[in-house]
Amino acid sequence: QMPPLAACYNLMDFEAVARRVMKKTAWAYYSSGADDEITMRENHAAFHKIWFRPRVLVDVEHIDMSTTMLGDKCSIPFYVTATALGKLGHPEGEVVLTKAAKQHDVIQMIPTLASCSFDEIVDAKQGDQVQWLQLYVNKDRAITEKIVAHAEKRGCKGLFITVDAPQLGRREKDMRSKFSDVGSDVQSGESNVDRSQGAARAISSFIDPALSWKDIPWFRSITRMPIVLKGVQCVEDVLRAVEAGCDGVVLSNHGGRQLETARSGIEVLVEVMPALRERGWEKRIEVYVDGGVRRSTDIIKALCLGAKGVGIGRPFLYAMSAYGLDGVDRAMQLLKDEMEMNMRLIGATTIEELNPSLLDTRGLMGG
Ligand code: FNR
């Protein structure tokens, strides 16, 4: 028996429903993290080490949560991050997320390994809706070049190159479920996939483990889209990304699905921003965070610390799997309502006003 959608009051509620109603294999693929899932749990737990230092007696009648990401406007500083295999959860797949993103004026990142074709997802967008492309780099660079050129031609506004997955991590829940109908769901171009290792490994054999910093100038030369490295995990690599001319980084551990005991993005953010500010580089690169964002307070904390925006993955998959478009719509609305309230409660009326003095981060600094 499905609880009514109105009984979902936060993003965790969708997860609880999805766990009960999803196909076991689909649940295993979406919910799994690498190894013992320590990083996956820490992603959300890390936000709890940060406390607010709100300001009172600020006129907070009018709240404006809108911002820009890579130069494009959006209504609230989160985006729908790329998650593969949308049709495992819902027969219409990623286009459900496209429609919800349009309703809420948020940006959607299209995964290389979407269940829908890339063109279907772009065709589903309306008006000046903004989409980005998440890229897994193929060993055959001619294929990658074609994908990138096509995405740019179809209006994608950002190229997010995933750099934390030269080999897919061990998601044991997923491996145990030995997913059997992945091949027909995916446009990976591989017909003879090895399904014995779960969905993730079955679809990822084309990814080039030789990808390196030397390839970044080549990407620069083949596209005018802003280039963002998704999956950067320490300040050294952020500085290197600036030097390489990248437009952004996503501090991410792939939702805890790759390197086990990698740090959470928010933890990395506190080492990254001071180093950028010290060099006067904070305007040269946009810094994003994903992983474990479940509450508007998580979003606000990341922004106070200097992130331009945050990505959210599993919660929208769960909302989509359980309730389709209405579910994703409600999940986004809940975040908006929470965010408006919490900005009031900390005494900030615009995104520009969010700053580190609104936080106590001693708990993150090893305190
Ligand atoms: C992902 N993620 C991901 N990232 C990527 O670059 N390419 C991909 O194909 C996928 N696929 C994918 C599938 C599923 C089921 C999940 C849960 C995640 C990682 C994703 O973009 C993001 O980093 C995390 O999902 C963020 O963590 P939360 O919000 O899921 O906690």
TrEMBL record:
The FMN hydroxy acid dehydrogenase domain, residue ranges: 3-364
GO CC annotation terms, alphabetical: mitochondrial intermembrane space
Disordered, as annotated region: 174-194
UniProt keywords, alphabetically: Flavoprotein, FMN, Heme, Iron, Metal-binding, Mitochondrion, Oxidoreductase
Cofactor: FMN; heme b
Reactions this protein catalyses: (S)-lactate + 2 Fe(III)-[cytochrome c] = 2 Fe(II)-[cytochrome c] + pyruvate + 2 H(+)
UniProt keyword annotation of Secreted present: no
GO MF terms held by the record: heme binding; L-lactate dehydrogenase (cytochrome) activity; metal ion binding
Biased composition (Polar residues): 185-194
EC number: 1.1.2.3
GO biological process, alphabetically ordered: lactate metabolic process
UniProt-annotated location(s): Mitochondrion intermembrane space
Subunit-level organization: Homotetramer.
Family: Belongs to the cytochrome b5 family. In the C-terminal section; belongs to the FMN-dependent alpha-hydroxy acid dehydrogenase family.
Name of this chain's protein: L-lactate dehydrogenase (cytochrome)
Organism of derivation: Penicillium frequentans
From-to range in the entire protein, with total length: 104 to 470 of 499
